[in-house]
Amino acid sequence: MSAFVQTVLEHLEALGVLGIALGLMIEIIPSEIVLAYGGYLIATGAVGFWPALFSAVFGGVMSQLFLYWLGRYGGRPAVLRYGKYIFIRPHHLELAERWFARYGPGVIFSARFVPVVRHAISIPAGLMRMPHAAFIFYTTLAIIPWSLFFFFLGQQIGANWMEAKQYAARYWPYFLGVAAGSLIVYGLYVRRRTKSKR
């Protein structure tokens, strides 16, 4: 598997920062690995920081838009039929739908830091016909710190970038804390806004 990942990333590297965007859009290997490799390339001077960040955000947003469009234009039957090919199972979708129904559009940001749900949450956003602009806004807000974190890891661990997910594991509680905190803040905001309209 590592040889396959290495081969794919070497081909993407030949494309420069475009390869980072493409790697995130097709996501045949985990985005964490692509981003960590991007950080490694930044450290070696192979790519520039700002172009790499722009490509990461663009590729990350586009990959989520594909899922959003699957939900919006394909509907639940298409999601259940094709979701398995992108590793989204019915129980992942059900969990994401519950989150979206309970917390509303703001969950698009916080769910990005939760494994499994962070991809699946785009589908109920499409099913509920969340406005494109709002979806892109919340997704971009989450992808920027996510990309920066794995860029940082890739720069720090250097040639061991393939082990980024293992290094990142120790930080998952903090990511979950960010997700929980943002959900609480957003929930309070929605409640206050609802009360003010009464």
Question: How would you characterize this protein structure?
Answer:
The model has no long low-confidence stretch (mean pLDDT 82). This protein has 198 residues and is mainly alpha-helical. The chain has one domain. The protein is 79% helix and 0% strand. The longest helix is centred in the N-terminal third of the chain and has 34 residues, at 49-82. The protein starts with a helix and ends with a helix. It has helices at 2-13, 17-26, 31-44, 49-82, 90-103, 107-110, 117-120, 122-127, 132-157, 164-169, 172-197. Helix 2 (17-26) packs parallel to helix 4 and helix 4 packs across helix 9.
List the helices and strands and how they pair.
Elements: H1 2-13, H2 17-26, H3 31-44, H4 49-82, H5 90-103, H6 107-110, H7 117-120, H8 122-127, H9 132-157, H10 164-169, H11 172-197
Helix pairs in contact: 1-2, 2-3, 2-4, 3-4, 3-9, 4-9
Judging from the principal axes of the Cα atoms, what is the shape?
Answer: globular
Mean pLDDT equals 82
User: Helix fraction?
Assistant: over 70%
Rg calc: 17 Å
- Major β-sheet, in short? none
The number of domains is 1
Number of strands: 0
Alpha-carbon distance between the two ends: 57 Å
Low-confidence stretches: none
H/I helix tally: 11
H/E element order: HHHHHHHHHHH
Structural class: mainly alpha
Fraction in beta strands: under 5%
In short:
The protein is mostly helical and 198 residues long. It is 79% helix and 0% strand. The N and C termini lie far apart (57 Å).
